[in-house]
Design goal:
Order of helices and strands: EHEHHEHHEHHEHH
Radius of gyration: 18 Å
CATH architecture: 3-Layer(aba) Sandwich
Number of domains: 1
CATH superfamily: P-loop containing nucleotide triphosphate hydrolases
Largest sheet: 5 strands, parallel
Strand content: 5-15%
Helix content: 40-55%
CATH class: Alpha Beta
Strand order of the largest sheet: 2-3-1-4-5
Structural class: alpha/beta
Number of helices: 9
Distance between the termini: 47 Å
Shape: globular
């Protein structure tokens, strides 16, 4: 049976790394954030009020086109994994559009959203903002150096509201503070096991704060150095 899995979280939390792990281990087909250049992005930085709507609509349509390809049988594998949830596009629209533009955006987003595939499971990766800031600084990616703590904290709050209202499928929260599933084989196995259980409907065992979750956390996260 084919499954569609979405991995979400703040920038730098480890979404793409986990996607690659699922690709390498389970042969998942990846659907990653569109890489095409937004032609309205430059003008937006120079004149946000004038170009915010055009820039946001470009992102919306690009993501919709990419999500729509998931429906094509020839592109399906047994597991399709995306590093973004289509509904999250609105989090950024809320930050850049005025009330009139946001109302118009919502009309388009609602119509397009009806034709996007519904995930079987959303994995929300979490890490403290301090950790995220450190990771962003370490990789020094172009365009990320301007990201501020206040921006991340605001975006995190918006994500929480999105997850609270999201009812399309189960959500598995996974802490990714000290988790090293890129290099630690034991961590990789435990992460994959938790995801597999969740995909098979065993969400209770993966619920935050449950005994199973605490045991997994103890094995996944090394003790802090003293």
């Amino acid at each position: 049976m084919r499954r569609f899995l979405v991995i979400e979280g703040l920038i730098g939390v480890g979404k793409t790394t986990l996607c690659r792990l699922l690709q390498d281990t389970w042969g998942a087909k990846l659907v990653l954030e569109p890489a095409e250049t937004n032609p309205f992005l430059g003008p937006f930085y120079e004149d946000p009020e004038r170009y915010a709507f055009a820039a946001q609509m470009f992102y919306l349509v690009s993501r919709w086109r990419q999500q729509d390809t998931i429906r094509q049988p020839e592109l399906f594998s047994e597991l399709v994994v995306s590093d973004y949830l289509f509904a999250k596009d609105r989090l950024f629209a809320e930050k850049t559009l005025n009330a009139v533009e946001l109302e118009l955006y919502d009309r388009f987003a609602s119509a397009l959203g009806e034709r996007t595939p519904v995930p079987d499971l959303v994995i929300y990766l979490e890490a403290p903002v301090d950790t995220i800031m450190e990771r962003i600084a370490q990789r020094g990616a172009v365009g990320e150096t301007a990201i501020t703590r206040s921006y991340l904290e605001d975006l995190k709050a918006r994500y929480e509201q999105l997850l609270t209202d999201f009812t399309d499928c189960p959500i598995l929260r996974m802490s990714n503070n000290d988790l090293n599933y890129r290099d630690d084989d034991s961590a990789r196995k435990r992460v994959l096991s938790r995801i597999e259980r969740a995909l098979n409907g065993d969400m209770e065992a993966n619920a935050p704060g449950s005994e199973t979750d605490r045991e997994a956390q103890a094995s996944l996260f090394p003790e802090a150095p003293t």
